[in-house]
Amino acid sequence: MAKNNITEGSIWQNMLVYFFTLLLGAFFQQFYNTIDAIIVGRAVSSDALAAVGGSSAMVVSLFLGFFLGLSSGASVVISQFYGAGRRQEVEKAVHTAIALALTGGFILMIVGILISSWIINVMNTPAETVEASTMYLRIYFLGMIPNFVYNIGAGILRAVGDSKRPLIVLIISCFANIFLDLFFVVLLGFGKKGDTYGTIGVAIATVLCQLLSAVIIIVMLARTEESYRFDPKKTGFDLRMLHRIISIGLPAGFQTTMYTLSNIIIQVAINEFGKDAASAWAAYGKIDVLFWMTISSLGTAATTFVGQNYGAGKYDRVRRCVREAFALAAVITIPLATILYFSGNLLLRVFVTNEEVITIGIQMLRFLAPFYITYVGVEIFSSSLRGMGDALIPMLITLSGICILRVVWILFVFPHNKTIEMVETSYPITWITTSILFLIYYLFYTKKKLVKR
User: Fold this and answer.
1) Domain ranges of the chain
2) Which of 63, 124, 417, 423 is the most exposed place for a label (fewest CB within 10 A)?
């Protein structure tokens, strides 16, 4: 096997290269989501933007987040076995992961289509966007199988240190999505037929791009000669491997779901302030995602580097991976938050033209951006612990420090002062609390685990 830059050489330099490739991939993935928002917000209406980026986006995150959290167990297992050079176990993990993607995608497709209407209404979605949100969700859920296959396939490649080929797939998908968005919404005139038709056009374009991405990633896995090669005939569940994947992935999936549920409660609270606030929150989310895709890419890099070094038994490098990932996160987050704080007005105008929506969105961005640095500990520590195979306690920490505390805030504190600022305050309070809890647990866990083994 060729030299592994993850388990050898400079950590921060190799991690930075790996991170930037992930970030560029995340940028292109978000770019075509942003194109959806721009086309819908300008070619259709701000109400349609709220339908695509508001309640429906939260629902998608809820279901998709659970599976992606579950599938992260496969990435951790594969990275550990790959770092240890155990070829046969890598092969079993790959085919079990693909089987999990196919099965999970089918189940979620059926469930999602059936409950779309009910859940949109339960979320107190503004009446103007209910129909469009429901249709967007139903079409989006039709693409769950290719969505899951792509994500698990890209996760396999990243777990072995290959972040370049998933990037290539995302670039292809991104430009295909831009073309299809324009084709359905503008050329075929979906946008002129009203909010519902406009969101339908965007949803169809998204599903077609997910299918394209899945096909390309599977072909890439099938053509490699490495231990992670995919052979369709071998697709199936290895029960021991499935148990190992689920033992790591299930807590991570539950953690992601609880996180998203708490955000849905935030969305419901925002919806109480009317459609302008809902549209502003959706537009703010398109800007806010610049931070989230950055910190998420750093988290994925930490998981991969920690996982491979842990599997290789290089425990000193494991500690250094965590420290250097944390330093990189801080160095990148501070200037990013500063830029977003001062350029919010310009960025918001990319998505919406309504002045009231822009004013609300500026307030949201300037309130929350300065607190981004407080979330760094949550992402880096939880990702690193997962790379070592520990997912249960991180899930409990996130559940208590972010999810439960955020729900308590909205249910018991917010009613006494019903302002948008009070809703927003739930974020920094929970980020700070959870970061402190993770720091304490990380120090305890590594002192015990990395020394005794």
Assistant:
1) 11-452
2) 417
